[in-house]
C-alpha cells in the first residue's frame, strides 16, 4: 500500500509531499519531497525494489546520510586500506566532490542523471582521467555503503551504467634545455628537518621511483650493494623490487644525517607539503606545465637513452607490470634516435 500526503505549514502554505510505502514483511518507508511528481517516482522505485526482493532495511540510513557525510566516513574507514597512490588520488577526488552540488544531497536521492550532469560539468574544466577517478571514487563509496559494513541495503549505485570519459591525453612532458639546472637551484628549500626538496628531485630522476615510494623510503631499505629494496606492501604491483642507485643518488643518501633507527623515514614529509614546495619551486624555475610525476617519465626514458637498458632491465627498475605500461612512460627524444641512426650510417 502506498500513499502521498501533502503537508502544510501553520499559514496553510504547502511545504511538501510525504510519500509512504507499506508492505508486509518490510519496514515502513516514509520520505518527504518538494513536488508530488518526485514523491510518485520514489514510490514507483521503492515498490519495484520490493518486487525484486531487495533488502530495504538499510534504506532509511541512506535517506538521511548526505554524500558529504559519507565521504567523511569513507576517508576515515576506507582510505587507510588503499595503496598510497590510490589514496592520494582519491583524496583530491573527494575534495572536488565535497565542493560539488552533490555533496549536500542524500545518498539515496542521487540518480544516474545527476552523475551524468556532474561528469559533463567537470569535463568543461578538467581532463577526462580526472573525472574518471572522481567517478571511480563515487562508485566504490556506494558499493561500500550498500555492502555488509555500512548496511545500507537496497541503495542503488548511480554510477553504474554511466559512461566514463575517455582519457585521450597521455602526458609526454620532459625536461628541456636548462630546466634541470634551474630546478636544482629552485629546489634548494628545506622540506623536513634533515632534507631538501632537491634531494627528492635527484632521487626521483636517478631511480625512476614513484614519489609515493620515495616518501615512504626507510633507512632499512638501503642495501650495502648500493640499491634500494622496495617491499611488496609498498610497491604498486605488490611485488618487491630492487632499484639500483647511481652515484648521484648514493651521494644524496650519504649526505643525509645518520638515522636514529633503521626503520626511520629517510624523507619524513607529507605528500601535500612536498607538492606545495614543488609547485613553488617549479614556478620559481619558470618550468610551465611540469608535474612532479613527470619526473618518473623523464627518469624512465633516461634508462633507455642514458643507461642503454633493455626493456626487461628497465621494467625491473621501474616496477611496471607490463612492457606496454613502460612504453607509456618512456618518451624517447626523436633527436636522440636520429643521432644514433646517423652514427650507425657513418660507420657503415
Write a concise synopsis of the structure shown.
This protein is mostly helical and 348 residues long. The protein is built from 15 helices and 8 strands.
Model description:
This protein has 15 helices and 8 strands. The chain folds into 3 domains: 2-54; 63-145, DNA polymerase, domain 1 (Orthogonal Bundle), CATH 1.10.150; 179-346, Orthogonal Bundle (hpI Integrase, Chain A), CATH 1.10.443.10. The N and C termini lie far apart (89 Å). The mean pLDDT is 84. A hairpin with a 2-residue loop joins strand 4 (190-192) and strand 5. By secondary structure, it is mainly alpha-helical.
Distance between the termini: 89 Å
Fraction of residues in β-strands: 5-15%
What do we call the CATH topology of the largest domain? hpI Integrase, Chain A
Number of domains: 3
What does the main sheet amount to?
Answer: 3 strands, antiparallel
Averaging pLDDT over every residue, what do you get?
84
CATH superfamily (homologous) name of the largest domain? Intergrase catalytic core
Radius of gyration: 27 Å
Helical content stands at 40-55%
CATH class placement of the largest domain: Mainly Alpha
With strands numbered from the N-terminus, the spatial order across the biggest sheet is 1-2-3
Give me the CATH architecture of the largest domain, please: Orthogonal Bundle
Structural key phrases:
348 residues; 47% helix; hpI Integrase, Chain A; 15 helices; three-stranded antiparallel beta sheet; DNA polymerase, domain 1
Amino acid at each position: 500500500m502506498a500513499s502521498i500526503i501533502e503537508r502544510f505549514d501553520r499559514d496553510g502554505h504547502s511545504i511538501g509531499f510525504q510519500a509512504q510505502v507499506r508492505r508486509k514483511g518490510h519496514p515502513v518507508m516514509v520520505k518527504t519531497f518538494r513536488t508530488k511528481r518526485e514523491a510518485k517516482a520514489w514510490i514507483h522505485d521503492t515498490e519495484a525494489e520490493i518486487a525484486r526482493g531487495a533488502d530495504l532495511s538499510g534504506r532509511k540510513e541512506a535517506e538521511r546520510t548526505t554524500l558529504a557525510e559519507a565521504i567523511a566516513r569513507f576517508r576515515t574507514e576506507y582510505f587507510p586500506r588503499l595503496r598510497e597512490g590510490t589514496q592520494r588520488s582519491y583524496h583530491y577526488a573527494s575534495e572536488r566532490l565535497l565542493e560539488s552540488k552533490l555533496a549536500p544531497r542524500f545518498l539515496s536521492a542521487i540518480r544516474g542523471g545527476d552523475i551524468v550532469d556532474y561528469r559533463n560539468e567537470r569535463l568543461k574544466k578538467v581532463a577526462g582521467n580526472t573525472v574518471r577517478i572522481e567517478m571511480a571514487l563515487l562508485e566504490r563509496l556506494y558499493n561500500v555503503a550498500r555492502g555488509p559494513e555500512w548496511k545500507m541495503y537496497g541503495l542503488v549505485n548511480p554510477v553504474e551504467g554511466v559512461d566514463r570519459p575517455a582519457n585521450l591525453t597521455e602526458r609526454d612532458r620532459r625536461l628541456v634545455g636548462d630546466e634541470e639546472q634551474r630546478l636544482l637551484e629552485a629546489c634548494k628549500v628545506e622540506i623536513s628537518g634533515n632534507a631538501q626538496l632537491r634531494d627528492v628531485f635527484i632521487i626521483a630522476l636517478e631511480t625512476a621511483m614513484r614519489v609515493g615510494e620515495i616518501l615512504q623510503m626507510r633507512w632499512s631499505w638501503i642495501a650495502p650493494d648500493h640499491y634500494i629494496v622496495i617491499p611488496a606492501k609498498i610497491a604498486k604491483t605488490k611485488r618487491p623490487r630492487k632499484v639500483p642507485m647511481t652515484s648521484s643518488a648514493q651521494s644524496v643518501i650519504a649526505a643525509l644525517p645518520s638515522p636514529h633507527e633503521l626503520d626511520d623515514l629517510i624523507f619524513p614529509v607529507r605528500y601535500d607539503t612536498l607538492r606545495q614546495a614543488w609547485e613553488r619551486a617549479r614556478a620559481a624555475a619558470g618550468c610551465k606545465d611540469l608535474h612532479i610525476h613527470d619526473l618518473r617519465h623523464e627518469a624512465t626514458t633516461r634508462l633507455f637513452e642514458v643507461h642503454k637498458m633493455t626493456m626487461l632491465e628497465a621494467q625491473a627498475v621501474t616496477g611496471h607490470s607490463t612492457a606496454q605500461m613502460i612504453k607509456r612512460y618512456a618518451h624517447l627524444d626523436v633527436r636522440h634516435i636520429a643521432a644514433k641512426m646517423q652514427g650507425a650510417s657513418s660507420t657503415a
